[in-house]
User: Which sequence fits this backbone?
């Protein structure tokens, strides 16, 4: 007596199928029953590869951790970011794919934080290479013209602190801004020690600064609660990662509420386009 070929149903399975057939049911042969595992095994690597390609070169998800872009973006927003627009980075090559278009003033951009490359920031691009930027009493001026920024939020309009982090600006300030004029709001006797050339910027009064080649100047829409270019300088173009497309999920963080990601969903923000 010879053994049945591999993968063929056994006598016991044939008898069981005959009984099930009498009751209107049949049991697929063993090889057929488990064929779906092989089909999934063949598809899974291709699906993973497609996911990695899309994530690396096309679109990636980001979460908003701070309020620096309120009310444009809120804490708890989850974004889909277009990485193709500015030319996605090619991993381990130090190069980028061709860009669809160059960054524009007013774009909301995602970039690698120059001070800590392990972090990604989201801000609004307000200055291109060659632009001359300044701020007077919280109003942004670009190339001498006051900008109408309707998206800006001011939570502390009467406060105008001076920060030691502003020291970097000395190397980029236009010479006319550091003329020895005590009446200038950026100058003063106390500035001599902190800023040897007399330039004393504050959060709402600084510049004019000239944006260097291949760099950008960014600000948060929540101007009084944003760690941005005023504090740490320009963003090299090589650090741009993309621009947000839309909010794909959003919830209101609340430590006093159980499962806020499930119970405090902002349904009205889901699908909203970022501008």
Assistant:
């Amino acid at each position: 007596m010879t053994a049945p070929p591999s993968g063929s149903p056994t006598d016991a399975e044939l008898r069981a199928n005959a009984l099930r057939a009498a009751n209107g049911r049949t049991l697929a042969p063993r090889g057929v029953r488990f064929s779906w595992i092989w089909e999934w095994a063949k598809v899974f690597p291709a699906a993973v590869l497609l996911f990695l390609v899309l994530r690396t070169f096309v679109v990636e998800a980001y979460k908003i951790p701070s309020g620096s872009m309120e009310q444009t973006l809120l804490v708890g927003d989850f974004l889909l970011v277009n990485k193709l627009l500015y030319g996605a980075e090619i991993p381990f090559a130090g190069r980028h794919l061709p860009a669809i278009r160059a960054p524009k003033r007013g774009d909301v951009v995602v970039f690698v934080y120059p001070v800590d490359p392990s972090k990604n920031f989201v801000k609004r691009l307000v200055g291109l290479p060659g632009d001359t930027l300044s701020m007077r009493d919280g109003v942004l001026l670009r190339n001498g013209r006051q900008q109408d920024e309707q998206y800006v939020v001011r939570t502390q309009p009467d406060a105008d602190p001076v920060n030691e982090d502003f020291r970097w600006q000395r190397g980029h300030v236009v010479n006319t801004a550091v003329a020895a004029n005590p009446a200038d709001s950026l100058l003063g006797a106390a500035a001599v020690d902190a800023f040897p050339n007399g330039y004393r910027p504050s959060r709402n009064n600084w510049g004019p600064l000239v944006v260097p080649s291949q760099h950008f100047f960014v600000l948060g829409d929540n101007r009084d609660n944003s760690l941005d270019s005023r504090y740490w300088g320009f963003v090299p173009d090589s650090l741009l990662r993309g621009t947000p497309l839309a909010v794909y999920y959003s919830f209101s963080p609340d430590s006093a509420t159980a499962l806020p990601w499930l119970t405090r969903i902002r349904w009205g923000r889901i699908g909203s386009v970022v501008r």
Remarks:
- Residues 177-185, 187-194 have pLDDT under 50 and may be disordered.
- Residues 253 and 259 are 9 Å apart (CA to CA).
- The chain has one domain: 52-269.
